[in-house]
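Title: [Solved] ABC transporter substrate-binding protein 3D structure

Original question kept below for reference.
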Amino acid sequence: MFSKRWGTALAMVLVMIMMVTACGPKKAEEAVKVRIGEVTRSLFYAPQYAAINKGFFKEQGIDIELTTTPGGDKTMTALLSGGIDVALVGSETSIYVQQQGSGDPVINFAQLTQTDGTFLVARKPLSGGKFDWSTLKGSTFLGQRKGGMPQMAGEFTLKKYGINPQKDLNLIQNIEFANIATAYASGTGEFVQLFEPQATIFEKQGKGYVIASFGVESGKLPYTAFMAKKSYIDKNKEVFQKFTNALQKGQNWVQASSADEITAAIVSFFPDTDKEILKGSVQRYKEQGSFATDGIIDEQEWNNLQNVMEAAGELKSRVDFKTIVNNQFAEKAKQTVK
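Solution (posted by the thread starter after getting help):
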């Protein structure tokens, strides 16, 4: 009798447990891992870091695995080989891949920066008035890697002011990106083209002074964008929409936030850089509109990018905007994300 009653009671308990389980909250869906390879660690990418640290990607059910793959060639190799899912790199790299006749094109789906991010740094501060670009003629200029967007934007600006980089300057281009600042600090070159925060660090140390902005001079263009192989995007459209939603929220937040707030949000990505230097660098990029306000890649800006590449002699033939740009995720994100 006891065994029968116990069995009945146990059965009732099991039924109740099953009912509670069925009616209770469902287990959260497992986050989808997305592997991003960024071409460099840069304050230029503040909206990305803000979106990660503010939890905007997690809100969308995305677990970001971020690695730095120095150099556009290395970043693109990692993408094409499947080592990463998404590349954050200059849009010119997708054009280079397209020119090589790729059967699986690399698609730009969200823009992060919309100007060049380098500054012209001199050994002496600008003394009164507007900088005269013609003073560069005959000088030793420490530039960026040939074929990369920083160098192409730099040459585009110089040519705009009637300077032939190869003939009018002693142009140095054989120093690795990571070593350019060190080379200048050690005495190489009269002028150098630098990203932040290195430009501000030099100003604080009295080793160099920002006298002009290549970002302002070369105009708006899809300088750095998120891209992925078309085949991968086609198989994961929902993930890419969520990814772009998170990015848009990060872009909105950066636009609405002060340099102090942005610095506090992204400082963990730059543990060895003084906060005041970070803040000054962020402010400089905000003031010149370098951070894209949304992920949409504008056709006019795309054409400007190709003008810059053409002027540098790095464009075999122009690539149609619609061939390797897909704005559907960015357009929807802009409409829906607040």
